[in-house]
Hints:
Layout: H1 7-11, H2 14-23, H3 31-60, H4 62-66, E1 70-75, H5 81-90, E2 92-105, E3 111-119, E4 130-132, H6 137-141, E5 143-144, E6 147-152, H7 154-160, E7 167-170, E8 173-183, E9 197-201, H8 202-208, E10 218-224, H9 231-244, E11 251-254, H10 260-298, H11 300-308, H12 313-351, H13 365-390, H14 412-431, H15 436-466, H16 473-483, H17 489-518, E12 528-534, H18 538-548, E13 553-567, E14 570-571, H19 582-585, E15 589-593, E16 603-606, E17 618-622, H20 623-629, E18 636-641, E19 644-654, E20 667-669, E21 680-686, H21 693-706, E22 711-714, H22 715-754, H23 756-768, H24 773-810, H25 819-845, H26 849-853
Keywords: Cell membrane, Membrane, Transmembrane, Transmembrane helix
Domain MacB-like periplasmic core: 34-237
Pfam families: FtsX, MacB_PCD
Amino acid sequence: MRSAATPLARRLPVPLRFALRELRGGLKGFYVFIACIALGVAAIASVGSVSRSLVNGISEEGQAILGGDLSFSLIHRQARADEREFLGSLGRVSEVATLRAMARSTGNDTQTLVELKAVDGAYPLFGEVAIDGVGSLHDLVAAKSGQVGLVAEAGLAERLGVQIGDPVSIGNATFTLTGLIAAEPDRLSGGLGWGPRVIISTEALEATGLIQPGSLVRWRYRVALPEPASPGDVEAAKKRAETEMAEAGWRIRDRNDAAPGLRDQIDRFTMFLTLVGLTALIVGGVGVANAVTAYLDGRRATIATLKSLGAGGALIFRSYLVEILMLAVVAMAIGLVFGALTPWFAGSALATVLPVADAVPGLYGAELVLALAYGILTALAFALWPLGRAREVPATALYREYVGRARAWPRPVYLVALAVIVLALAGLAIGLAYEPFIATIFVIGTLAAFIVLRLVGVAIMAIARRLPHSRFIALRLAVGAIHRPGAVTPSIVLSLGLGLTLLVTIALIDGNLTRQLTLSIPDKAPSFFFLDIPRADAERFVSLVDEAAPDGVTEEVPMLRGRFVALKGIPVADYPRPAEAEWVLRGDRGITYAATPPDDGSLTEGDWWPEDYDGPPLVSFAEEIAGELGLAVGDEITVNVLGRTITATIANLRTVDWTSLSINFVMVFSPNTFAGAPHMVLATVTLPDAAGADSELGLMRAVTAAFPTVTSVRVKEALDSVNSLVRRLAWAVRAASGITIAAGILVLAGALAASHRHRIHDAVVLKTLGATRRRLIGAYVIEFALLGTITAIFALAAGTLAGFVVVEQVMELDFTFLPAVAFAAIGSALVLTVGLGLVGTWRVLGRRPAAYLRDL
């Protein structure tokens, strides 16, 4: 009989022709395979695409976010005449001042912390400030009929209970609220804010009395270069400023680095979510292995027939490999489509979680190719083993029912290929990670989890095999099913264990982070920080606090801001910048001076200077930060303070407990370093635990009434702001981990489906011998409950260890074991394993024995 194949089909390679014929039978048994690959690829593609759209949004809007092509920032002081002249030679200049202040309603005596911005007539150089209502920004903040206007975010009106047209006091001046800010083009460049934004004019700023020598105010000078300004023009202007005005002490940023802190956070967050997505893909890979194993198990007769007709093992392997890859391509295409579309509807949702710029939706080929690479490598890694074993199916399997599985390992060539693929996966995960060290820990942890879970599965089978026979029939059947030939015990333990381990890890990290921010405010944490107290009024301030809160404890220190210029004689720009200490070198740091050492005995190395020391500048440095930066006693650091470049020698190191929330500084200088320099005083007030909200508000009102230019920061409100952001981020993490849990459920379902044929065989034999459905259901419940409980115990231990490492070593927080997580893990394991197990076996118990007995 002539073949019915078309001429085109006959020209196709034999493995491809065979694979296409196999696929004519439909996708039965491959739905879990497709779902697992599609889910993992979609997760990685979505995270990468959304991240790239956000980064591109920052890059494309760099001028508007920064406020110019270049930004020059100074702390405490305005630019001098010669500096302004130089900036003017570069292009158009806009002067902006930012500081924190207290805004007060004159009608209801309420007040709140605000982020105050004073702008000149040239602001903004790029973009536009959108105001709800009628009028432009400069019209709304101008002085009219003796009244000076301000515009603010809606949060100010909500906190003070005011409306447009109502008076609002800031410092010594009273303004009229004339509009509400809908959008601010350069908002992202200012970092995290502790209060609503308020904008006034630079002329009105003088009337507030907030600007005093040493006040904590940042003056930013944005420059718009003559159009068209190419990246080379921007870089040339920046180099010119660094060369000609090297002593200015300003921090220079360009439009290509408009929001470095935010960009770093996006990269770090992307790395974490990508690793979670990769975990989902790897967990799904177990489902791939289960699905391929189950499918090939059902094709043993076909394989044996082909071998009987002369087909070689290599042809069998290539044919089924092509078929698996074709299905994997379909699955990856589904995942890639979903991932590519995500930026179009995820940007607005992320704007409620992160203070991000408008995303730029698009098809990002590099991110999609990366997700595709992960998908292909994962599919191959988990399909090679069952494919390699399938080629060894003997032709004799055609002549008898073949229940037991082949125990032979795949040939060495397949083991070598598998090792190369695993190394490629690890290389991608580590090589492209924002923090390779964390990615390396992830890879090692994942490999360790696979090995340990595999050993746990083997150990469970070995122990079950050696247990004495129980008189309880259901228990005896359950134990026998756990260690019988072809048992799915290793697959169930592996798939359920990986998913539950991640669930416990994420839950413990989330719980500990939330606990640190909400439940564990340090006992000695101050109730308030008071900023910009005039040095001459410090004693009067302390007296006022003692009168308003007699039970409170007040601590005050001199406060200046400075920026690192060089470390050990090496300019900061050229100094090695470890990720953990990047925050210290970026921007400006708070600094102080002291004649006497701290009372808490925190000095760990070196000696404190004498109280009357009058030699070259000395500095006490935080020990932890010094270690991260490679600094030691005797090294020199150079900082710029108030426009002066100061080089000091590290005299000693001291421990700093940043979690105490009290007054802490990276650097404490000898007093002679800043002799005669203008500065303000920073104070903290700690109220007793019994003091309620009324006492705190009363203190704030008393301070604001007597010192309207002093800024009050209530610690509880500041922590609430941070906690709100963390809670929103936690939802993104939970959603990502939910994808992994979903993959675990699919894998578990696939593992149970893989044993379908064997369970039919066992059920038929047992029912023939008189076993009732009730007894078989009892045996299955016990089997799945035992496997679920043992796996949950392992996941609890492994997840707790992983959570401990992340919280203690990576986040450097105190780890607390949360018992509720233990019960949730064990409960979810039992519900998932028993529930899915019974769903998968219910149809098995309904099969009639007669049809199967004829084949035995």
